[in-house]
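Morning. Coffee machine broken again, so started the prediction first thing and wrote up yesterday's gels while waiting. Chain of 145 residues, entered below exactly as on the submission form.
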Amino acid sequence: MDEFMQAAVDEARRGLEEGGVPIGSVLVYRGRIIGRGHNQRHQRGSVVLHAEMDALENAGRQPASVYSECVLYTTLSPCPMCSGAILLYGIPHLTIGENRTFMGAETHLREGGVKLEIIDSKECRELMEAFIERHPDLWNEDIGV
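Came back before lunch.
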């Protein structure tokens, strides 16, 4: 696992330690993390703070020229909301830790020209599987079930 996906996993673990859903994300520009985040819907009572949204928020406003050179790393396949933000800001490359526990809007992202790299990380998958087994109600709320 490379350093950026490891940073996303670290964010996911931070979210879990806070009592939330263990999904993490980092936004990388020219080999440097400019934003990091984790799912905070439960902790902050937020309707939008998925990991990818949190990482984008924590990166602050960036010009389109920055987004166009970024890679977003996320431990789990992104939902339609997060995928929409990726497309809106023109982020061209997305590295996904795993998509077995949840298949996000990957077709929509590909159709929008985003390059997807699926790592299929055992660590990311096991983190989610254990969480879903222990907290199905919180997970179902997070994905809108």
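DSSP finds eight helices and five strands in the chain. Going to sketch it on the whiteboard this afternoon.
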